[in-house]
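Quick one: structure tokens for this chain, please?
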Amino acid sequence: MPEVKTENRKRRSWYKRLTNKYRLVLLNDLTFEEVTSFKLTRMNVYVLISSILVIFVLIILAAIIYTPLKEYIPGYADVNLRRDVMELKLRGDSLERVLHSNSLYLQNIKQVISGQVAVTEISDTTNSTKTPGYDSINLDKVSSSEKEFRKDVEKEERFTVSNTSSLIKNKTNVKAFHFFQPIKGYITEPFNLTEQHYGVDIVAPVNEPIKATLDGIVVFAAWTSETGYVMAIQHNNNLISLYKHNSVLLKEEGNYVKAGDVIAIIGNTGELTSGPHLHFELWYNGLSLNPEDYIVFK
């Protein structure tokens, strides 16, 4: 019994301390006149402070939820913003792939023009000794493993009927084009695969204009040490025409030209030349074609 009474007294004393009333008096510091007074208890003070804290927290949460401040919270972002970011990322990846493809395409064209890559030749003699001629394409920069791989592929495709028929079909498709004569003159060096001469050399009067053989887009127009001023035009159906040793180029990369448009002036630029002439090449699906099979130059 004494212990129970003691506990009851403690509870009452604790509750009494919370409910005891206190007076908060505000006095004038000069006259000590009472300005105002408040009756408070400890319970009222605790409730008031708790209420202020709860209201403050609610104001902060509302500001975060209903204002743009939420975007500054790490890991929290607007749904629309995330969608826009994903769309921009996808577009960036697509543009990166397109730029990579275009750069490889232009790089391959430049390598063909400068003679730094190997080209599959339509010939049955694979082990014959070849002497380099004008505008030759050498295999010096190709690794031995790649040469062996090329030989294996050529051996497999030599007796494949489908490849032969597709090659004949490609030639037939090219003959369907109406080629415009790039320049009038005399051919001094014909097309010759065995000597790695992948075009024809045409001699014409000085300052004779050179014209585009088909409609297309200029994909290369620059200077090379071996072939001087060179221009390459991309036509439909993977057909490319090359014009080398020019004295002046009248079109730039990216220009659209029509068949018969003047694109350059005949010249004698570059190391692989012995006089003013035009070296003209035709490439179809990566294969060099004899221009005399499709164009009359006289």
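Residues 2-68 form one domain.
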